[in-house]
Write the structure tokens for this entry.
Amino acid sequence: MYPNKQDKNQKLRSVRALYRKNINKTRTDDEETKVWKVLISICVLAVFFICVIDVVFDIGVPLPPLFGI
């Protein structure tokens, strides 16, 4: 091979490696973001459910017999 072509190929390989590294990093960031969104959504729904149950029982609705009280 010619020296110029060898240098060019080596530069291309290094640029490709950096590009692949950057793409893989953004993919894992997206996956982590999805996991956090799911976790926060579950927590918000749980708090909302607890608040609704609390309000319902405060206004005088009796507990169902399922709870054994």
Q: What stands out?
A: The radius of gyration is 28 Å. The chain has one helix and no strands.
